[in-house]
Structures are given as C-alpha cells and as structure tokens.
C-alpha cells in the first residue's frame, strides 16, 4: 500500500490542498491520501479554529474522492502535532509505504522539525512548488545525505493559502472560487472567520 499523508491546520481547507492530493495520487501512484489535521502546529503562532470545524470541512472537501480520507489522529493525541509522532503511530497501526506531502514553503523549515532524520526513515517527502519557486534552494533545508528521500510533485500553479482565505473572509470578501462549494457553505452556516 502506498499512502500520502497531508498534514496541516486546514483552517480552512481549500482547492490547493485538493490539487496537491490529486497530483500526488497520480504522480506517485498512491493508493490513498490521508488528510491529518493538526491539534496545534508547533511552528505557527495563530490559534486554529475548533478541531471539530476543521475536521468537518476536510470531510466535506473530500466527499466524492474515493482515494482520500481524513484522520483525527493528531487531534485525539492533542498538544503540539509532530509529523514524526504521527508516522510512528501510522507505521505501527497500518504498515505501508508513506509519503509526507507538503508545499515547498513548509520544507524550508524542515531542519527545525522534531527529529527530521528519523522522519525520513519512516517516510519519503513529496514536495510541491508554489509559483516562482525552484526546488534546489528549497532542498537546502534537508540534510544532503537525505535529499534522495525527497520527491517533487508537479502540479498546476495555485497561489492560494488558508491565511489569505481567512483574511478575505474577515474582510467580507467571497472565497467561493478557492474552496469547494460545500466548504464555503459550511463556513457561512457556522459563521467562521467573521463570514
């Protein structure tokens, strides 16, 4: 079994997350992409929305995507969420070949992650570049001897982030073009982000 893990706050989840999951499924010949919302990202200062909202938005986003699933693994564990802890748990519960999926901006901080070398013994890293980014400077965050564990996932450029979407929503702007309709409806119905 070949499984991609896509972690993050998903606050809110958006079409860029879906595009990365679809590109990884195709390019890496994965059997599944598992979305794993964090309880708390140790590298970010902002307080995310309630976990129940973020989990439900991811569930709504991947409806109709048979090769995608969501896990509350990190939310159940609570506290700061670390990729290495999740991969240890996943490898014990469900042995497979794992890829940790992320954008190049997240890979830049890789050296500051908890036990990055151990993580690369548990999985490969699959990285998608944002528009205008090049892989070589991004790879410098990974120890030279481990760079062979990093795969590039080509995907169409989608310059969108959850931070931008939260800013748009708090300003009363529409976000329908960047999120699935069911996610936009959920945000509106639950008055999230000042919508």
TrEMBL record:
One Pfam match: CTP_transf_like
Pathway: Cofactor biosynthesis; NAD(+) biosynthesis; deamido-NAD(+) from nicotinate D-ribonucleotide: step 1/1
Keyword check for Lipid biosynthesis: no
Listed GO MF terms: ATP binding; nicotinate-nucleotide adenylyltransferase activity
Domain Cytidyltransferase-like: 5-167
Keywords: ATP-binding, NAD, Nucleotide-binding, Nucleotidyltransferase, Pyridine nucleotide biosynthesis, Transferase
EC number per UniProt: 2.7.7.18
UniProt catalytic activity: nicotinate beta-D-ribonucleotide + ATP + H(+) = deamido-NAD(+) + diphosphate
One of the GO biological process terms: NAD+ biosynthetic process
Gene3D superfamilies for the chain: HUPs
Alphabetical list of InterPro entries matching this protein: Cyt_trans-like, NadD/NMNAT, Rossmann-like_a/b/a_fold
Record's function text: Catalyzes the reversible adenylation of nicotinate mononucleotide (NaMN) to nicotinic acid adenine dinucleotide (NaAD).
Similarity remark: Belongs to the NadD family.
Protein's recorded name: Probable nicotinate-nucleotide adenylyltransferase
Organism this protein belongs to: Fimbriimonas ginsengisoli
Upper classification of the organism: Bacteria, Bacillati, Armatimonadota, Fimbriimonadia, Fimbriimonadales
């Amino acid at each position: 079994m070949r499984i991609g893990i896509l972690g993050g706050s998903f606050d809110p989840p958006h079409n860029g997350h879906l595009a990365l999951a679809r590109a990884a499924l195709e390019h890496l010949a994965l059997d599944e992409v598992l979305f794993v919302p964090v309880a708390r990202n140790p590298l970010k200062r902002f307080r995310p929305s309630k976990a129940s909202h973020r989990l439900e938005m991811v569930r709504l986003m991947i409806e109709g995507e048979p090769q995608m699933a969501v896990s509350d693994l990190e939310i159940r564990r609570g506290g700061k969420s670390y990729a290495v802890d999740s991969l240890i748990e996943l490898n014990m519960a469900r042995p497979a070949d794992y890829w940790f999926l992320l954008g190049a901006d997240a890979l830049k901080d890789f050296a500051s992650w908890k036990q990055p070398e151990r993580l690369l013994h548990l999985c490969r890293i699959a990285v998608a570049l944002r528009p205008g980014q090049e892989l070589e400077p991004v790879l410098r965050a990974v120890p030279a001897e481990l760079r062979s564990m990093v795969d590039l996932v080509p995907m169409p450029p989608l310059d969108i982030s959850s931070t931008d979407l939260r800013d748009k929503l708090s300003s009363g702007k529409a976000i329908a073009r960047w999120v699935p309709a069911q996610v936009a409806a959920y945000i509106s119905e639950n008055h999230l982000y000042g919508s």
